[in-house]
Amino acid sequence: MTRMIAALLAGLAAAALAPAGARQASGPSTYTVDKLPPPGPMVPDPNTYPNGFTADTGFFKLPAGRTMGSTSAVAVDSKGQVWVAERCGANSCAGSAVNPIMVFDRDGNFIRDFGGGLTVFPHGFYIDPQDNIWLTDARIANGAGGQVLKFSPDGKLLLALGTRGVAGTRGNSFTEPNAVVTAKDGTIFVADGHTPYKGIARIVKFAPDGRYLGEFGTPGKDRGQIEVPHALAIDSKGRLFVADRWNNRVSIFTQDGKFIDAWTGFGRPSGIAIDRNDILYSADSESRTPVGYGYNPRWKRGIRIGSVRDGKVTAFIPDPEPDPDKGATSGAEGIAVDGDGVIYGAQVKERQVARYTRAKP
Into how many domains does the chain fold? Predict the structure, then answer.
């Protein structure tokens, strides 16, 4: 009976996240307890940290007639402008001419958009110190997708990693590129592999000009392995943080791929960001109690905040979803923070970006 329920939950999760018209790699037909990672250390209660933030889901003002689709991609540039990559008013950009990349000013006013016809499934988002915009296209359909795209702030395509519309597992090709980040010297890191137990869970390394330099990471649940590397961030010491989502932890590596540590206290991370003060923000959009997809009992969904210096969580913004066990995802999946400590959470299910500000005393 447990396996039957688990299989049903897995199927519902896959259906909820599958983009219309795009290739959706299938997961395993059943999930058994022995294949799932442990739920994490038995801390007294991982959900009782203070909140201290208020949420605003109506901050961003879209142009007349424009509807925001599902989004897991939000980032902030050096001017404090907020960039969002949404899925063309739906959960996929396949066959759409809508410009998925939008930028808003500090007051939430729409400025401009671009990128129509270039992507299938906008997923991971990053803005480098030169304010270039990096976007991962995590699905392949109709001869498109499966790339990492670098744009100038005015929307000019500067670099494309991967072969458009062609899946690959080695070198300059991707199966499901989830996230991208660059180091201080311009080295590019791409996380590849969105479907668990398919043998693709790797971090691919490129020179600033796009030359393939190598890769690391093996799929699995043991310490030092990764499964569904869903987001990336780099701290002030140059350590690479991986949202090791399927394993319910943040895994930490050197830029050469040496494993450093793994932290389970930040929940089941879909998105991570590290600010200039080395504060880690982790968006948990999937934790659930039932065995199956999202299994992470005792951890509630929401945004956890803590320091990368000691790995301790100090704050928690709960997801307002009243019954998360009934759905595969809710709340923030992508996450970003500006220089004033304002947090932005990109939401797949709700098809919006929430803005979190510190509550006034």
Answer: 1
